[in-house]
Amino acid sequence: MNEPKDFSGGWDGYRTFCVERKEPESLTVTSFYLTAKDGRPLASYKPGQFLGFKLDMPGYEKPVLRTYTISDSSGDATHYRLSIKREPPPADQMDAPPGVSSNYFHDHVEAGSELQVRAPSGDFFLHEDDEVDGDGGKSGPVVLLSGGVGLTPMVSMLNHIVANGAKRPVWFIHGVRNGDEHAFGAHVRGLAETHANVHAHIAYLEPGPGDVEGRDYDSAGVISMELLQSLVPGKDGDFYLCGPPPFMKVLFNGLLDWGVAESRIYYEFFGPATVLKEGADDKADRKSTPTASTVPGPEAAVDGPMVTFKRSGVTVNWDPEIETILELAEANGVTPDFSCRSGVCHTCMCALIEGEIEYVNDDAFLLEEEGQILICSSKPKTDITVDV
Ligand SMILES: Cc1cc2nc3c(=O)[nH]c(=O)nc-3n(C[C@H](O)[C@H](O)[C@H](O)COP(=O)(O)OP(=O)(O)OC[C@H]3O[C@@H](n4cnc5c(N)ncnc54)[C@H](O)[C@@H]3O)c2cc1C
Ligand code: FES
Fold first, then answer.
1. Ligand 1 pocket check: which of 28, 29, 34, 68 to mutate, most ligand atoms within 8 Å of Cβ?
2. What CATH number has the domain bearing residue 87?
């Protein structure tokens, strides 16, 4: 007989979880508390890491794959908490469909629902192990900068610092549209009031009529570098960034301009990763991820392995100017699903029907499912056919 499997270090593939309860955090963000159906211990995780979900949704030909950050500290071994923002159609395209997965969670996932979940993973997490000192962790200041639902990894990191009794100074700086969308406001304020090392600043982009400065938020408008510099004592800290692309671009470039070492800036995109440093390539040398609009068009195609996107009925030559199969697809009018474009979320996973590929991204979290590949992080070695 096989020994019972120990899940404390993770698990392979998908594991069934049950929703224990669901709690609104704001008008747009709802938390889901998940427990393992098999009752075995959960896998540990680092604050900032996420879970992968495979949703079999009625009316969808194939499962919808999405990733959601664990929004609490890892102190509680009995459940994982997710906090999900309901994604409406883009403001300038109100007739477009709303977000598939987030609306499904909000409208159809209830206490008792079962979900297929991949083990915690991700390389955006609180760094604390390399300078352990007497007070329970890395002691340097940490600045947690978030916009919108990008606060979920920051809440996990903040809770972790507090739960471990670490004395390192922490600034939780969060921008959100207004009180309707503001999640974990009372929780973060409470931690700042009861812990001398915790400082919080909340900026509302457009405060609503019921929002009170000093009670609900601290400043109106965006989080600018001027605001940031007025809040934190200096640039010698670890800076964590998660939020919408404009927020990320301004603060990432602003931090570099201020002289913050790039090695101390950690960031994660929830949506498609975009080039952080437009026109600022001389500042540092971080690899950038092209977006659909920046990849070369089909006219750039030259001889190379043939790539067939079977479901789309498109066959094209590989173009060595292009970095990934996903980019080749987009350059030729094929629109596969994607999210992170960096091998992290597995949204772009698809079947390799024929041929061989190689991964071009060392950071990709590679798949164990046989015959499945991540097209955002791979290129063909031979002629290939993919199920896209
Ligand atoms: C590492 C990581 C961690 C994450 N953690 C969190 C988290 O903690 N909390 C959280 O809420 N999210 C998180 N996300 C984001 C999450 O994974 C999903 O991307 C998010 O919920 C949106 O998915 P969706 O299926 O609802 O929207 P999608 O269906 O993917 O749609 C996205 C947007 O596109 C719009 N759209 C759809 N179709 C069209 C069309 N035809 N024309 C124009 N617009 C269209 C939708 O209206 C929506 O606004 C994370 C993402 C990553 C990569
Ligand atoms: S888009 Fe996230 S892994 Fe490919």
1. 68
2. 2.40.30.10
CA of 43 from ligand 1 middle (Å) equals 25
Task: Please indicate, yes or no, if residue 277 is contained in any of the structural domains.
Answer: no
DSSP sequence for 232-259? SS-S-SEEEEES-HHHHHHHHHHHHHHT
Which domain, by its residues, includes 198? 138-268
Q: 291 near 275, Cβ under 8 Å?
A: yes
Pocket test for ligand 2, best of 347, 365, 368 (most atoms within 8 A of CB): 347
How does pLDDT run along the chain (388 residues), one tens digit per residue? 344 444 567 888 889 999 999 999 999 999 999 999 999 889 999 999 999 898 999 998 878 888 999 999 876 678 999 999 999 998 899 999 999 999 999 999 999 999 999 889 888 899 986 544 444 446 689 999 999 999 999 999 999 999 988 889 999 999 999 999 999 999 999 999 999 999 999 999 999 999 999 999 999 999 999 999 999 999 989 999 999 888 988 999 999 999 999 999 998 888 655 445 443 333 333 323 333 333 344 444 457 899 999 999 999 999 988 999 999 998 999 988 777 777 777 778 899 999 999 999 776 666 667 899 999 999 999 999 999 9
What single-letter amino acid sits at 344?
A: V
Q: Whose CA is nearest to atom 18 of ligand 1?
A: 66
Residue 9 lies in a domain: no
DSSP classification of residue 3? P
- What is the model's pTM? 0.82
Residue nearest to atom 40 of ligand 1 (CA): 96
Quote the tokens at residue 322: 């292009």
Instruction: Report how many domains make up the chain.
Output: 3
Same domain, residue pair 74 and 156:
no
- Claim to verify: residue 307 and residue 255 sit in the same structural domain: no
The 3-state DSSP class for residue 358 equals: strand
Shortest-distance ligand to the CA of residue 375: 2
Q: Rounded to an integer, what distance in angstroms lies between the CA atom of residue 306 and that of residue 325?
A: 11
